[in-house]
Design a protein that fits this description.
- This protein has 7 helices and 17 strands.
- By secondary structure, the protein is of the alpha+beta class.
- The chain folds into 2 domains: 5-256, Deoxyribonuclease I, Chain A; 267-297, no CATH class.
- Strands 1, 2, 3, 4, 5, 12, 16 and 17 form an 8-stranded mixed β-sheet that branches. A 6-stranded mixed β-sheet has the order 6-7-8-9-15-11. Strands 10-14-13 form a 3-stranded antiparallel β-sheet, with no helix packed on it.
- Helix 3 links the parallel strand 8 (119-127) and strand 9 (154-159).
- The longest helix is centred in the middle third of the chain and has 17 residues, at 132-148.
- The chain starts with a strand and ends with a helix.
- Residues 1-15 have low confidence and may be disordered.
Length: 298
């Protein structure tokens, strides 16, 4: 069985691509590290994009602890003053890094995704600032990278700190207070020719502790070329546990149900003419060569 394929309930599931993204609000506590480790193991993630790690420097010991393996690579933007910090980690057996770039609010990795015979991908892990003018700077920076980048199989994932529509945010403020932000975010998506991946699960990804304010500010955007490779990809909003943000599971699986089984109606056998009918049809065929092979062909 190929490396990117496993059996599930008697059927073959091709493990095409699995990426996890989450605002973790610091990796210092053991309960958060255990949550990440358990999620990687449960979902069999190939890549994980974390925002707000609050790590000034990410150690290989912590990486091995999270993955339970040393088959990993990573790129990080360190946090400072117990704030910020971004990291993108991956399985070396699934993703081979070719190039990378970093900014204050993003990490971009380019490389070969090995699970589908080798696909050159460009994946950006974003952690958007809160001020609109700073968001616009980041959007323009990503647009410029995309304009200059030959690779068109793109994915931008993480905390965009912006919504696309008024119903994606429940707030104490009027919708008009963030209408400029909505227009700016949608302009960025349109200019970059990104597609908002279909969402499964919860409607919102961030919740205030008392639930009075909530919004969908975490998401996955991809290029149309990405959809040519993984046409059935979706983003799943997981349960909120160790952070005020829900984790995103971005994946695409193709199911091979195998050969169709032979079926017949039991009622046919209750007809007295049934066996004679089958016998006459069987003898009417002229079989040449091995009987099993001839039966399969006919």
């Amino acid at each position: 069985m190929p490396a990117n394929r496993r059996l599930l309930g008697g059927r073959a599931v091709f493990q095409m691509m699995k990426i996890v993204s989450m605002i973790i609000r610091g990796l210092g506590r053991s309960i958060k590290r255990k949550y990440i480790k358990d999620m990687i193991n449960k979902e069999q993630a190939d890549m994980i994009c974390l925002q707000e790690t609050k790590c000034s420097e990410f150690s290989k010991e912590l990486g091995y602890l999270l993955w339970g393996s040393n088959d990993i690579g990573w790129i990080e933007v360190g946090g400072s003053n117990n704030a910020g910090g971004i990291i993108t980690m991956w399985r070396n057996s699934q993703f081979q890094l070719v190039n990378s770039s970093r900014g204050n609010n993003f990490i971009a990795v380019e490389g070969e995704w090995k699970g589908d015979g080798g696909v050159q991908v460009f994946i950006v892990n974003v952690y958007n600032p809160s001020l609109l003018r700073e968001k616009k700077v980041l959007w323009e920076e990503i647009n410029e990278i995309r304009r200059l980048q030959n690779n068109r199989v793109w994915c931008v994932i993480g905390d965009f700190n912006s919504v696309r529509r008024q119903n994606e945010r429940r707030s104490l403020f009027s919708a008009s207070d963030y209408s400029r932000e909505i227009r700016g975010f949608n302009d960025f998506i349109e200019k970059s020719e990104f597609v908002d991946v279909p969402m499964v699960g919860r409607k919102f990804t961030w919740y205030k502790r008392n639930g009075s304010v909530k919004s969908r500010i975490d998401r996955v955007l991809v290029s149309r070329e990405w959809l040519d490779v993984w046409p059935k990809c979706k983003q799943f909003i997981l349960s909120r546990t160790v952070s005020d943000h829900c984790a995103l599971l971005f994946k695409d699986s193709k199911v091979d149900w195998g050969p169709k089984p032979f079926r017949s109606l039991d009622a046919w056998q209750e007809d007295s003419r049934f066996k004679d009918f089958v016998r006459s049809k069987w003898h009417s065929y002229e079989l040449q060569g091995e009987a099993c092979l001839s039966l399969k062909k006919n």
